[in-house]
Amino acid sequence: MYMRVLTLLLALAVAPTVSFADMAQHTEVCVAESEQDIAALFDRWNESLKTGDPYKVVANYASKSVLLATVSSKPRFTVEEKADYFQHFLENQPVGRIDSRTIELDCNLAIDEGLYSFTFQKTGVTVKARYSFTYKWDGVKWLITSHHSSKLPAEQAPTEEPVHAVARHSEVCVAASEKEIEALLDRWMESLQSGNAHKVMTHYAARSVLLPLSSTKPRLTLDDKEDYFRHFLKDRPLVHVHSRTIELDCNMAIDEGLYTFTFQRTGNIVNARYNIVYKWDGLQWLITSDHSSIYPQ
Question: What are residue 113's DSSP bridge partners?
Fold first, then answer.
């Protein structure tokens, strides 16, 4: 790991909460990390599983963090809630392995997402799942601020080659309010109602990852995503958000929680969890990571 110095510079702009047109800006010095450094954070988490101690696992998470666990529909916010989940999860002695991943590096934030497998040594069972880890540098170490894990949908999953982003070591940060970030999901939901997959795609960055509700295949290119939504929109989905947590950071925001899809063509109703990461590209907020999963049973 590099020697880390985190220095907060003077704010360049004015009010803390403004409209998109008048966004405040400040400059932040960003920690320099490699993809290997971020990949090693999963190894650290995986080693803590082997201890069998839920509190050693939870030590990898920031005090303000969200766990959307593989086999629980309940979002876990507190240390005790996360420890309760891992207390049961660790009983079968899980060992994790990354099958494919994408790593994105940003200013004091990093996202590691893809497909992983758990082999439970007590039972001999191996389970494949999708994952999204968001890490944040707290001035001393990297901690998990968001962890969304979900079982693979029924279809067979092809292996994807990882796509990597480049770390940026200093940048001017824009300020946005929680309501402005909430509005981004509202716009995405409106684009679903249009039935036009191309309109949905305007919300995604060119380099972004979609781990969709009903497909095991990570969608990395815009064409892959548009192909998914072209089929998904045939059932005319409507979305209702039930609960959410929003985290704001330097040119990045995370919106995650629980929502329901009502498919008007079939009448099916699906309860799901979501984790969406937005990034400011200099002109607009775009989705760089979208992980959606059906409630565990």
Answer: 102, 132
Q: Is 86 helix (H, G, I), strand (E, B) or coil?
A: helix
> What is the biggest distance separating any 2 CA atoms in the chain, rounded to whole angstroms?
58
Q: What tokens does 189 get?
A: 């939901």
Beta strands 285-294 and 204-211, pairing class:
parallel
Strands (E), the chain: 8-11, 25-29, 61-68, 94-106, 109-120, 125-137, 142-151, 170-174, 204-211, 237-249, 252-263, 269-280, 285-294
- The pLDDT tens digits for 277-295 are 999 998 999 999 999 999 9
Query: DSSP secondary-structure letter at 59?
Result: T
Structure tokens at 285: 């907020």
Q: What percentage of residues in the chain have a pLDDT greater than 70?
A: 85
CA atoms within 13 A on the CB side of 30: 23
